[in-house]
Amino acid sequence: MQRYGASDFTACYNCGTCTAVCNLSEKNSEFPRKLVRYGVLGLKEEALADPAIWLCYACGSCSETCPRGADPKNYMAALRRYAVARMEPTGLTRLLFTSNPFSVVFTALLAVLFAFFMLTVKPDHVISRWIFDWMPEEIIHNLGMGLFIFLGLSMVVGGLSMLVKLFKGKPAQEKRIASLWKAFVETVAELISMKRFRDCDADETSYWRDKPAVLKPWFVHLTIMWGFIGLLLATALDFILKDPATTLWLPTRLIGTAAGLSMVYGATVSVVYRLKKVTMSYEDSRLADWLFLGALWLAGITGFWMEIAVTGDYSNDFNRIIFMIHTVVSMELVLLFAFSKFAHAIYRPIALFAHFYGKK
Description:
Fumarate Reductase Cytochrome B subunit, about 350 residues, 2 domains, single chain, mainly alpha
């Protein structure tokens, strides 16, 4: 757990202060104390089978008040990284989360590979002809498809593994279909509104108490999430229509512009908060956090640069380089979805669903 970022969580003596101060700890709940106790006792499977791992939004109140300095906030973050690494079957996530040198080298090599692939998009280009002389186009295509399939299967396996762990051994409930539907509705409502995240800032003494909503962590998180989803939608529509939207007022272009503004805003504010360390939540940033936010920000900024270039028909070598950077960064974000900090976008909704279902 310490390799995944936890500090001296074994100092915990189970006093329950973290549970008492946590705004997300419900009546008769032992959150997050029970999860820390699992770690102290080495109960790996029990911890992984508890959806509460993903119910924490790292506000830091527990760590600020812990009388033993066990730092429950960082422990919970480390536990989520550990859970992602355990669910993902290839072992790649474990290396990315526990070895900074490996993470940097792997990310750089993947960027080179994607750039190499992008150079083959125009077969008549001199570089493409040289590449195809060395490796036939069919092999490059099959390698690319194989990589997409492999990464996609890893994501599916991880999600299914989590579902099995969370629901294995749970007693059958009466009116199960109704309970499942209600849990699904509550999960969607939470993802749209971030109500539980907003509850983290409810204390009278909270740093965020008097800040406008657009600066609060829950709203910043919301802009990143829906911005990325909107960009995926716009890109998918362009691909399906086989005619990228080059007219400024086409629906796909409008969706992409609005989503891009949302994502860049969220990523920029998050970076500023981490640089300034405005609260305990932003004090302990790991390389994975910086790589993730940096990639989101760079993808957004280069995307807007390309939007201006396409609208003004500014075709030159510099803009082609920007396009290459934008595409490579975007491909890394998508293809490393299940292997990076981004994986919580898979696991948190599943955990919220299990949590709401378990309360029925």
